[in-house]
């Protein structure tokens, strides 16, 4: 050890370092903060933090009087302690408390370490008797070091001891990474030697390689003796240095007392990292190697119930403890305490002798063996607090698991009550180690109650730990009792500030606060009011500033639209039909009142949590909540709809892609579950499609699937219904329908076959009778058309049900003539066929007028043209009816939903162009412009005809392909436009030096280069050798008057080169690129052509199912009939409920149970397939191999123990033989009989039970 420099025995200026020893340190220490700044900000440190200086010289007999026993020279001391004040006694032993005094500290600031990162570290010289709470506050509050989630104190491995390679690997890859992932502090010796040097280098390397955010998580605190610090070269680079001063120089161990007190103080502090701050910071000591003195440190720490982790095979002390734990566990115990000696209970003389021999073998130079034996036996009595890390079958990658197991074992030793293990459970949740929680905390030894799991459940939900959520629900947590409206609001308040859902909720909250200000509410709104404000235990004005369920309901309304009614209006006491402003007033009044709804339990807790997880795009959490929630098909489709709407608003590409993937996953789940339902019972699956959900506030599967654009879900055969043919047979030929359409009396002939007429009462009763059994094995199978027909005649069924039982149902039937007429003309296929035929007639009339009879005023318009105008007017009336028939939303929302459809946009464009053309054709001065608009409008009306052919199985997918190819063309036109402009401008400038005619410039810059692509290249203008003799001029005046300018000849070679390059790029490169894009689009759509066709077919069927039976222009009669029926007679619409089936009570419960069974069957099949996959098999094989390797290690350990027992038995047998021989040869005992001999049968029979 190098000789220590002389210290300073008094105070000095703040922020400076004096004395000879400090002068050596000054050359290496860089104060990152100027001294003036230190004097202002840290001037209080010397008033609180002290240092210790030896003031009494106690002669060291080995230094010939030159050195004190503290290690300092004689000149450093102000007095000589050779005796007491009376001279009666000579002081022979130096003691820090008696022979040193405290002075204000003079060494603190920042150290800058050169090299990668030039990292700064705080340092402080402090007395060994400094209260630890002062140091902890200084580090966390003033140095900015974050409070730890865990403290790992690494001891041992000091001095010049060389660490083994695997120990270095454990420190670098295990401990440092575990600290980085858990936010732990690592307490080390801080010196550049042994373990401290290895840890310092590992922290430095990880800090250099990691980002600044993750670097702050690795907090290494060096607790070093001040007397051993000669200069900065002896220090490693932790986050902070605590240089403990006990007044000595060049001596070790002076910091151990402060370090133990510091660890004990931290272990009683609480951290707020995991929410409420109810967990105490766990402290774990880690022993690496170590000398004999380390046994005392381990024993004292174990007496305070501090857990230890010992690295087996790292060095003497660690190996000794591990061997004693193994060997003493198999030796017999003596509960009696040896007389005259105060030792721990349990060990007998044989164990003491065995421990003595082991200590003598490990530390042969130690003299006080009995003291070490007592320490070792005391350590053994607390073996439950010790966890052994065996390098043989535990790698560095699992070091965080080892740390957590050590802490959990320590807590279980204290008590098996669940309340004593809550902190360890929260620690397991924070580290997301559900495997350790299952093996150590939920293995049946601890009886968990709901109160014990409540806070941890909240932590798992907020921090996205779905495996823990599943674990808690399986081990006693009742979600019905857990999820109240108050807790649900707190979950929404915990959303990340960077999430899209937070932004949407913040907008709604700001809007409500703005309404409250306008109403004169007492609280002041703030646009930046955070959602995570503290939750008021009682209602007060602060509750109106916080996020409520009303904001959640508004966001869900924006995402789901009118598919379902607003959420959470029931608990809030709001009316579904109330306006937004009225609802805002009621909510503000409610939040300023009692807020009794917050203590109510959620009626559908799993569905509420499912929505909460979907809004945050938490895939695994959302999937688990979907598995637990009811109405699986509708829930999956709702999640798909929400995610696809959020993906449209999300700006981050990665998050947008993740949302789309999760949405597709939910669509797949909905399709798979419905397929299982359809296989089980077709009738129930039909009812499931149109069943009105109470969990999703009135939504149905068909409505949600349509809104979510779930094309895969519509690829199922049953979702393509209701049948287009209505009550007619599905095999009816088209020509029969056309013939009957033009000759209506054929309806009453046998040309078209209709389904048998059955009373609605019989059909409905039989339909519901079929739903009575959960298994669905009996009963008649009804199609969705039957169910819809039943709903269509709801009024008649109610009338039949209210009649007495004796009345004849047949008397309530319609007459055959009217019933058959209704069956044909009210069928969707008739409506579709009529619209197609009349639309062709409309296009024929429109074309005739444009080509033959479109006369200018005052001769026109004529009669045929007026008929066309009336026809278009009926089309406008139908579009108005469609726009106001999309739901019960506001007018603005209805218009917005109407415009979202591409074909509605086409209709709107055609109508606007027709109106513009009609207006312009009425005046002579604008007649030709109006005619042009009419021609363009005819093109739009004709293109609208494409929508009709979407029902065709072959043409339908082709329409989608054409639509997607149009999008591809826009990208192609972008690249083409760049080349057109580049070549056109250069070509025009090279050929013509001057041409001021704008129309010709546009033609030659854009039009002619575009025509070059199709082979129209005017060589007579471009190639000088092929130019004809044309009249041209170079006179600028004549050119301005309109004369043709003469082309240039000088740069003709460059023009030809540019032409060749342009044709090469456009005709070969860009066109082939366009062909490749078209091929990709075609193959992509054609691969799922059946899915696209069925989706289009369903939308078309629904459209014509809701349309009036008459086609334009006769549809005006249907419109007048509907107007009178709805507005004058006040008869509600029956078609509005055609795709909604109201089921309540027992029937609804049976349907939900049946759907849940099918979902469980599907999940079981999927889990079985996953278990049988190659990946899962490899995982199971790997686990089995690891288990076999661990068992082999244990077998070798048992073999070693058996050899030891065998040697002991052999020794005892030899001793007994010697005693028997001695007694037989002596005269003390006379043998009554000859000595026994070993029987050969026993020796030769290995299966004999006797030895």
TrEMBL record:
Domain TRPM-like: 440-716
Residue ranges with Polar residues bias: 1242-1251
Keyword Transmembrane helix recorded: yes
The keyword Transmembrane helix is assigned to this record: yes
UniProt-listed InterPro entries: Ion_trans_dom, TRPM, TRPM-like, TRPM_SLOG
Domain TRPM SLOG, first and last residues per copy: 122-239, 240-322
Composition-biased stretches (Basic and acidic residues): 339-355
Localization terms from the record: Membrane
Segments passing through the bilayer: 832-851, 902-924, 970-994, 1053-1075
Annotated membrane topology: Multi-pass membrane protein
GO cellular component terms given for this protein: plasma membrane
Protein's name in the database: Transient receptor potential cation channel subfamily M member 4
